[in-house]
Amino acid sequence: MISDIFVMSLEALRSHKARTFLTIMGIIIGISSVIIVTTSGASVEKFIEDQWNVFNPTGMVVGTGSPGPTPHISFGETVFTNRDVENIKNLPHVKNVAPVGIVPLKKISEREGFLKWVSMPGGSMYASTPDMLYVLSLNIKEGRVFEEGKKEIVVSESLLNIFGKDKKLKVGDVIYLQRLDGIPIKSKIVGILKDSEEFNILSQLTTPSILGPIKPYYSTFFGSNVGPPLKKVTAYSILYATASDKTNIETSKNEILDYLNRGESDAINYKQKNVDFVVISQEFILNRIDQIVNAVSMLITIIAFISLIVGGIGIANIMYATVTERTREIGTMMAIGAKRRYILQLFLFQSMIVGFLGGILGCILGASGSVITVEFLGNYIERLAAGAYSGKILVIFSWEWFILSLLFGIAIGVFAGVLPARKAAKMDPVVALRYQ
Amino acid sequence: MARDIAVDIQSVTKIYKSGKKDFKALNNVSLKVFRGDFLAFMGPSGSGKSTLMNLIGCLDRASSGEIYIHGQSLSRLNDNQLAEIRGKQIGFIFQDFNLIPTMNALKNVILPMILAGFPRSNRESNALSLLKKVELDNWATHLPAELSGGEKQRVAIARAIANNPSLILADEPTGNLDTKTGENVMELLSSVNKEGKTILLVTHDPSLTKYTNRVVNIKDGEVYEKR
Fold it and tell me: What value of ipTM does the predicted structure carry?
């Protein structure tokens, strides 16, 4: 019986192809936009997450500033000493610590002949320990890492072309790094950093193209010292650290803060009273990015859902029109034995089928639309970042949205169909038969 | 020998409420219809014939009085039970044919079988033999729009007898047909009547009474039968 009514509903829809198609389109557009938005959101989120993961998932930045829900690090004060670096490194859940000595460069020069120099304006370099390579997930492609106390540097591949493609630098070459204080340091390139897909937007922002040891590049630089005039020690404004494991990022963060605040650290003595120690983990940054992406996709999803509801109103509208148009048929069917229940089912099935088909087709269109949209976003990011990012943005389907949209499509079909179908089922057969 | 009573109408009154005024469409009507009768209701428009047909056809309820169909009282039945009686014991034929326009002739005949819950297996062969009976078996796959008026009414007759009802209600079945076609339809109804089915006919056309064995006049909600 019920299967016969279902078949009759299908036939009724088939006999009004254009109307059925347009009604289904309303749902298709709603469902597919929900899916495109959620899929693109998930894909972008994953992409950004991947960018950070290259940096090092357990990484964190230690500095001074203001903690709290939106922590802020000010780079001004140099407070962390080498002893602090050693002590933090020995904390149970900390794996690596690299001090960040930022050395601004005036220019980078090469000697071409006895009195002939070529110079290029330089940005800045990082002076640190070899641990820096680990913390930033950097690898040496060629040569070796620098040694503490020697005038050795490792450089990024992009720096090799600084004097022109025809004068490409290589391992063993000597260049002159002129610091902001005017002192030039004759430096030997001992290694080249791998510049493959592991290089990304964010590590480009955080990693300068030149890395060298603390001494002599940083320790002799003005402003790198703290303490009384006769007992000056080298100090840093920020440290990069990594936790021993992804699961104890929070633990190691607390250990570091504990150590710094306990009073045995040098930093507590050197920092100003009105600032606090701050540790920002990469996890925290990732969560923030997650939150932002989620908020944006939530907003667009709401808009997409509104279009789905508009589609539902379309179903209700057309079902009302259909019920009115078929009033006489309804009367006839009642006369030849149709119970009110069957009439209800007949119209409810129709709107459910519209909702279901709209849902299925919307999922298919949404899936293919997502691929195109993500491809488009990928191209956009590529242009935006001019190739300075790793990997490709991949389509991440969030299947729960497919199921949810499908169920929502059917639910909309049911809700949109209930009132018109009830109207049909409640008709007085005598009146319906007389309807012109 | 007393004949079986097909429809027993006892003191039925039907009042329509329209605004503040009540309109009495049927006034204390009593009538017995016997099994095998071919009865014509005649009367001017607004006399109450259609109201009476609607009550007998279980489409509407009497305000007072009682109607029995094959001994079954209608007043205590709920909507579903009335629908069941309509589907299984009564066949309807309308002036405008009232075929479902999106279904072909065969499906229109099958429809009452579906609604009555008959098994799928022999519906189609039954419907085909019914169409053969009204000489339309070659038109089974045609939509109503592709049939002439007479053909539509023959499909409607096939639909009316699809569930082998004992009672057939025909409301002006020839009203939209030319004389010749109308006669064909009446011949067909007559042959159905001869198979033992009780037929109640509403008509304006006195010439149709030659097919019937009883004529009941209705005027101002009251019935008068010529003996």
Answer: 0.92
Instruction: Residue count of chain A, please give it.
Output: 436
Nearest CB to B86 within list A329, A337, A430: A337
- Name which of A333, A335, A340 is nearest B59 (Cβ-Cβ): A335
> Do B117 and A1 make contact, defined as CB atoms within 8 angstroms?
yes
The beta-carbon neighbor of A338 closest among B60, B99, B115 is: B115
Domain spans in chain A, listed from the N-terminal domain onward:
2-54+287-434, 78-271
Query: Which chain B residue lies closest to A338 (C-alpha atoms)?
Result: B115
Partner-chain contact B159 A333, CB within 8 Å? no
Q: pLDDT by residue (tens digit) across A159-168? A: 888 888 888 8
Domain extents in chain B:
37-61+78-225
Report B:42-71 residues touching A (Cβ under 8 A). 54, 57, 59-60
Q: How many CB pairs under 8 A join A and B?
A: 71
> Cα(A195)–Cα(A253) distance, rounded to whole angstroms?
30
* A residues 321..360 contacting B (CB < 8 A): 328-329, 331-342
Residue numbers in B near A428 (CB within 8 A): 60
**Are B120 and A339 in contact (CB < 8 Å)?**
no
A436 CB near a chain B CB, below 8 Å? no
Q: How far is CA A398 from the centre of its chain?
A: 15
Binary contact (A433, B84; C-beta < 8 A): no
Chain B residues close to A334, C-beta within 8 Å: 59, 83, 86
Q: Tokens standing for B177?
A: 């047909």
Q: Do A336 and B159 touch (CB under 8 A)?
A: yes
The residue count of chain B comes to: 227
* Closest residue in chain B to residue A341, using alpha carbons only: B80
CA distance A51 to A7: 53
User: Structure tokens of A110?
Assistant: 């090469």
Owner of token pair 């309109």: B23
pTM for the full predicted model: 0.70
Mean pLDDT in consecutive groups of 10 residues from the start of chain A, 436 residues: 88 89 89 87 78 70 86 83 92 91 86 80 83 82 91 86 83 90 89 62 57 87 77 87 87 92 87 88 78 82 82 85 90 93 93 90 92 86 59 78 84 88 92 87
Measure CA A255 to chain center. Answer: 28
CATH fold group of domain B37-61+78-225: Rossmann fold (3.40.50)
* Rg of chain B (C-alpha set): 17
**How far from B15 is each of A192, B21, B64, CA to CA, in Å?**
103, 10, 9
CA neighbor of B157 nearest in space, from B118, B187, B115, B121: B187
